[in-house]
Amino acid sequence: MATDAVTGTEHAAPSGGQDAARRSLAPPPLSIDYRLWKLMGWGGPVFMASFVFLWGVLAGNIPPFKPSATPLEVKAHYLDHQLAIMIGMSVCLTITATYMVWGVAISQVMQRIEGDAGMLSKLEVMGATITCAPIMTACAIWLTAAHEAATLSPEVLHMMYWLGWLLIDLAYLVTSFEIAACSIVFLRDKREKPLVAHWVSWWGWVTFASFFVVNAIPFVTTGPLAFNGIISFWIAFFTWFIWCPSLSYYVIKAVGRLKAEDEAAALAAG
């Protein structure tokens, strides 16, 4: 028998069978697939290596074809490099989805710092997912231009070439929000050894700041602010090219560290 502390009345204590029944109604503990989590973390390096080689080197966007090119020069460029552009853009169009997968892995690590109810981890996964959209669409535009280069007029090809660059550059704020979310959360990590080194988060802010200059590209065709210029391309793009693999390295390592933390917590709980 047990006595109610408020009324002073006695009542029967729950039996072992009742306790077992109640436990059976409780949700089972979450099972975390750490191997899958780590595999998803490799989405970032897979995307970046593929993007740099296929979009950049093979398709001739590192460095970009000059923005000051005339419509006839743009048509000649697409005809001369048709196969390379088609291969690079078609594969890149498909494999860009690995960036979204990477975003999910990052978001899971961020939740361990800010909690399940945190908004910034959700902003990260949304930012990574929506970042794929302008990249994929720009690749589709350039792929179509290469595929139809022989039949399209120089003026239409010139428009499609510029449309791809305007889209892939000026949609940057989605990615900026993603980078800001990561940087804020990982700088808040109070572990003695943070899951992500603070220099990566500070580099994220450098990347965030570098993107704003690309708003100039619709208005210039030469110089450092053109889409092939030292500031709008070589600095803005390459800060991101450094941030992505750097963060990937620490996120992949963080999965192993979090697994060890979970196992230690389970042992301590008995």
Note down, in words, how this protein is organized.
The chain is elongated, with a radius of gyration of 26 Å. It has 11 helices and 2 strands. α2 (34-41) packs across α6, α5 packs antiparallel against α7 and α9 (172-187) runs antiparallel to α10 (198-210). It is an all-alpha fold. The longest helix has 40 residues, at 230-269. A hairpin with a 6-residue loop joins β1 (2-3) and β2 (10-11). It has a two-stranded antiparallel sheet with strand order 1-2. 36% of the residues are buried. Residues 2-9 and 11-29 have low confidence and may be disordered. Helices cover 70% and strands 1% of the residues.
Q: What attributes does this structure have?
A:
single chain, 270 residues, mainly alpha, two-stranded antiparallel sheet, 11 helices, 70% helix, disordered N terminus
Largest sheet: 2 strands, antiparallel
Helix tally equals 11
Strand order, sheet with most strands: 1-2
> Distance between termini?
29 Å
pLDDT under 50 segments (min length 5)? 2-9, 11-29
Describe the secondary-structure layout.
Elements: E1 2-3, E2 10-11, H1 16-25, H2 34-41, H3 43-58, H4 71-80, H5 82-95, H6 97-114, H7 120-147, H8 154-170, H9 172-187, H10 198-210, H11 230-269
Antiparallel strand pairs: 1-2
